[in-house]
Prior knowledge:
Elements: H1 5-37, H2 44-51, H3 55-58, H4 65-70, H5 79-86, H6 94-107, H7 113-125, H8 127-154, H9 161-181, H10 192-203
Amino acid sequence: MTTTSSTLETSGGLRARKKQRRHDEFVGAAxxxxxxxxxxxxxxxxxxxxxxxxxxxxxxxxPSKDDAVLGLEPFxxxxxxAAAFVAGGPxxxxxxxxxxxxxxxxxxxxxxxxxxxxxxxxxxxxxxLLVRHVAWVEExxxxxxxxxxARRLALPYAPDPELLALVVMTLLRVSALEWQKSxxxxxxxxxxxxxVDQLRSLLAPPPHD
Length: 209
């Protein structure tokens, strides 16, 4: 019996959905327990007991308890999307190509308005979580700067790669906020084009009289 490509895609899709469900179970349990007991009173073992798995399984998803409480999603850009960007594509226009990277990251992230609200409440209650979130952003900022520097070799541009990293983080955050303000309809990526247009209008020259 030959395994078809569609069968492999279906299998891969099922695995991805199962992984996402387990990820969400960990986050849900971690946030609920910390809201009830406080951050220091909750252990990885407590979270695993609530989900019904071993700590070894937990660490396949998160490097720490704080990451689970924050509900940090993988910051992933598909290799083919990154390669196209480094080569100067897909459009050759820097802001539009940054938006393609942001869209790819957003499409891999699954969040609900309730979870976002819960995360914000927890960060307010537990300042240590904000420190971890800032560190997580910094980890990925360095990765982006490296990517942007590689693009510069293929298609030179003026802005500093550090500035581009800030632009990407801003597009991610504001897209999520716009989505939240809309009542959580669709997903954050649905609001990206509007956020990019807002940024574009900010950079546009003033109209002449």
